[in-house]
Amino acid sequence: MQTEAARYAAEIDQNGYAVLERYIAPEVLQQGRSFIEQQVVAHAGEYFAIHGIEALGGTIIAALALSSPFKEMMRDLYRIQAGRDPAPTEQIFPVIRCLQGRTGLKQSHFYHFDATVVTALLPLHIPTEGKHCGDLILFPNLRGIRFNALRNVIEKAVLHNTLSQKLVAFAVRRGWLKPIRLKLVPGNLYLFSGYRSLHANDVCDPKLLRATALFHFGNPHHDSLLARLLLGANKRKAKLDHNGLRPTGPQPIPEATESALRDGGDLPVIAHGADIDDPQLAGLAHALERQV
Ligand SMILES: [Fe+2]
């Protein structure tokens, strides 16, 4: 008999996404919305994002990221899509994004590939009036899963740079490209392969609130130092380690890292959660990776 994860994986391969309708109960959705509403006040009606299990502690988002059935489903999806087991220490990385106000406008049509294979999106607040409701836009399964970190970095640099993002955004707005557009429904869970699919959100009316929880899982380059250095800007910005947790080890020595990279020597051991203080590396990392 086909498992649930196998069915969702087949839908993702065939249609680009899978939807689990009414994935959370209305009262649980309400709890998530209450948290968002408190944060909206704290952020004065402008765009914000909250990254990681610790920053979201005590919320339904953290509870879901830690729940065994949800983790098992994400792990199974990774196994099926990647054809191998995920790293044993890997955790689900949750993120909340709230588009609102003038700053929220800048967050639309930012086309990218995720660093992780499996992406689950749980809408909490979605505008229902007007043209601009922040639909999810997907070009599904455009690329394969790369286990070679260098190849992944090069491929992302080519497919996923500022110029290509602007060109795709322009072509979508003009109607020259026809991606999948999903009208999101709060409480449903949307599954897709963020690693393989170019995706972004459509414009959201600045007077309205669009709040979503994202769950990322399954980094094929989990153990790659190169990928740690060049990718994962959100975790770095939030000062989190590779598993999305607060680092407990010693802090990095950026000069040594830079010198090792320049000289082609052995890289020093870098603490999880290392910040890249070198502006060139940080700029490259920013250009290569931004999760939505
Ligand atoms: Fe994304």
UniProtKB/TrEMBL annotation:
It comes from Stutzerimonas marianensis. It comes from the Bacteria. This is Uncharacterized protein.
